[in-house]
Specification:
The chain is mainly beta. Helices cover about 5% and strands about 45% of the residues. β7 and β8 form a beta hairpin.
Length: about 325
């Protein structure tokens, strides 16, 4: 085995056609800034009395799986697959730019306990052994919109124990998103988001949770599946304090709002006139906490927390539109 730095390791994903059956190759190799994905196991401790004072005489394996986290920049082609696995439903159509090559991918919450599974790939020249992990599921997805950085995401995922593989990574060039590509809109109704009020932010974080539970069964050391339970979206933002109408009035009154978070890389044209885009719409949001610490010599910044809810009027909690040149997923 060779010594080396973490930059030599690579991470890939692919959409599974048969749930729990690992694919041979990755659909996308995704550059990452942090990766901590490990084999996990649990053992039964043989600790019954045998007439000695020693605490145990052995242990036996009863569960194998893998889990961990990875943090990556958002890229226009690979990120919709992550969103698909997180939310569960994806529908692709042709964009109206007229080129016929640009595609719109609309991702919404699937009303099932089995959202799209992924095969997760780890190419590891340091350990001299590559692995592929079947039945990869996303427990949480966190999206961070920060200054001076590419807009990034981090996932906490679970999967079956890895099987050995011989991988040949190939990283394709994709479009990324910078802070200036972010627009945040607030409206009274989901149907009014296109004309909603634009609010300038300092930072924004969105957390999507699937509350994954391991389906442990008799007769197998591996879980039968990893199942998502209640689906939740929460977020927080920072903005310069300018007036109460941005967030405080709605927070104090308990007024529902709709939010739109748009990433549109206007520096890049795809097709005839489209731009790589990731647009997140939340149909029914309440602001749950607002703080405004005041320091004498600092700008006054407000911190706002919010929670999304299912809108019975609009029949959804969230809808995400991704525009790119990827034909399908």
């Amino acid at each position: 085995m060779a010594k080396g730095v973490g930059r030599l390791v690579q991470f890939g994903v692919s959409k599974e056609t048969t749930r729990g059956t690992a694919n041979a190759a990755a659909d996308f190799w995704i550059p990452f800034s942090q990766l901590d994905y490990q084999e996990r196991f649990e053992n039964a401790l043989d600790e019954e009395s045998i007439g000695t004072i020693e605490d145990s005489k052995g242990q036996t394996r009863y569960k194998n799986w893998a889990e961990g986290t990875v943090k990556c920049p958002i890229e226009d082609k690979s990120f919709p697959l992550i969103l698909y696995a997180t939310l569960g439903t994806l529908n692709s159509t042709t964009n109206a730019d007229g080129s016929g090559t640009v595609r719109n991918h609309t991702i919404t919450v699937g009303q099932t306990a089995q959202h799209q599974a992924l095969t997760l790939f780890i190419d590891d020249p340091l350990g001299a052994q590559d692995y592929k992990h079947a039945n990869g599921v996303i427990d949480t997805l966190e999206i961070n919109y920060e200054q001076k950085k590419f807009v990034n995401f981090s996932i906490a995922a679970k999967s079956l124990k890895g099987s050995t593989a011989s991988l040949t990574p190939s990283v394709s060039t994709q479009n990324r998103f910078l802070p200036q590509h972010t627009t945040f809109k607030v409206a009274a109704l989901y149907s009014q988001l296109s004309t909603g009020a634009t609010v300038v932010l300092k930072s924004l974080k969105l957390t999507i949770s699937n509350n994954i539970e391991s389906d442990d069964v008799l007769g197998n050391v591996a879980p039968a599946d990893f199942l998502n339970k209640q689906f939740a979206i929460e977020g927080s933002l920072e903005a310069i304090w300018q007036n109460e109408s941005d967030f405080k009035t709605a927070a104090l009154a308990g007024t529902v709002k709709a939010l739109r978070i748009t990433l549109a890389n206007t520096d890049v044209t795809i097709g005839t006139s489209a731009n790589p885009t990731v647009q997140i719409d939340l149909a029914k949001v309440y602001f749950t906490e607002i703080t405004r610490p005041v320091a004498l010599n600092d700008l006054v910044i407000q911190q706002v927390k919010f929670k999304a809810h299912y809108s019975t009027t609009d029949s959804l909690m969230a809808s995400i539109l991704c525009t790119n040149l990827q034909a399908s997923y």
